[in-house]
Amino acid sequence: xxxPALLIRITGVVIFCSTVYFFTRHLRKESKxxxxxxxxxxxxxxxxxxILYVWYAFITAFSLGMIFNN
Length: 70
Prior knowledge:
Blueprint: H1 3-36, H2 42-68
Helix pairs in contact: 1-2
């Protein structure tokens, strides 16, 4: 395995690990905020959630692609 391929795989692992960390941190924060129940419109909540989870899915697929498809 050459050096550029190794660096790309390492970068993919770092991006994937940080995505998993931030996703779990977000879920913990959501559960804590559910108790404090800040009022947010339904549409705003749906749009924020959809954008966030689509971003997480994209970054996960991108980082796993860097690891396995190189």
